[in-house]
Amino acid sequence: MVDRIKFILDIAFRHLTGKKRQTGLVVAGVAVGSMVMILTFGLAEGIITEIEEKIIDISPLITVKGEKVQVKQRLLFESPKNSPDHYEIVSRIIPDDKKEVKPYTEVVSLVEKLPGVNAVSPFVATRGVLRYSTLTRPCFVKGVIPAREALIGKLKKNVVTGSLDELAYTKNGILLGDGLARKIKASYHDLINFTGQNGKVYNLVVVGTFASGFGAVDDNDAFINLHLAQIINGFPENAVSAVGIHTTSPTIVNSLAVEISRLTGYKTETWEEANANLLSLFQRNNNITFFLVIFVFVVAGFGIANVLITIVLQKQRDIAVLKSFGVSIRSLEMVFLAEGMVLGITGALIGCIAGHYLTNLISALPISYGPSAVVRGKHIVTVQKPMYFFVTSFFAILVSAISAYGPARRAARLKPVDILRA
Length: 422
Fold this sequence. Notes:
Helix content: 55-70%
Distance between the termini: 34 Å
Shape: elongated
């Protein structure tokens, strides 16, 4: 058995080394395909990872929404009870009821005691229009307790001018996203106007700016104090729009959300549910890119088939001689399959090594996404996992084996008598 394997590999290597230029080009094709696939895996996973990390850094992992789990009903009409066909018309939609968590202090106290919860921050969300000088900009404003909100994400770390502490003791203070501040050309301690949903105008002082790295957040969001947001929205002091929760680990979010909903009676939403559209968009784009990279391997497979077919045509007399000496059809097939495997394995090995170093190089380069990017940063985030190298190598070898099958079958079907007579 060992002698047979040595015999097959010896002939395979002789064939390949006899056509060094063609062999080198085919190996290069497989290597490029492997390298591109490793890079694609790294970039695709890096984008998703970066987005997830930024979402976790700026938003609660669980949000207790101001909606009851059991929707109340309102009786609109009831027929006389003594009528033969008694019926009722009810409404499950109550337009006058505000979506609020009330009393929020009890919800906060209840949730804080649960294992796995390390931060709870009530907030009031509102929309309005900011105005500074002649510039206006619609925005999303979140009223928070600064000390509690700082524990939910990395808001305090993301502050680039001013401070979150100043927001706590400035009743009419506002912390702007740095993109939003640029758009209205407002800076630290400027006095700006905010028109709320109630139509009233409030004078606010810019206590700083923050940069989360998310374009949509930095260009549209701002923070004010909870009490001021309650006044703007017309909420009583014991009501908020929702309650944000941060957990010790993202892995317990789903089970904990169910438990919180059961205990409080309010609907809950996890960070994955809140950002499902954004995550699915990037995942879909990554899948499209992956399928495009597959065609690089297909092209390399044609190259392998071309080289092996050429070898079969040029080595017909040698193949006939081998057959006449008793070399089996199976052994001849294995020779050409071995040649395809050698090309695939060599190309995959070179490509994986090159892909690893190229991915590291790209992640180390100081590349800016630009101010209009969805996700902003100073470096391109990449992720490398052993599974990516295994999948890439397996796919490269599989394509090589499939490409070698046709030439191997053709070589095995050659008839020695016809070739030697020619």
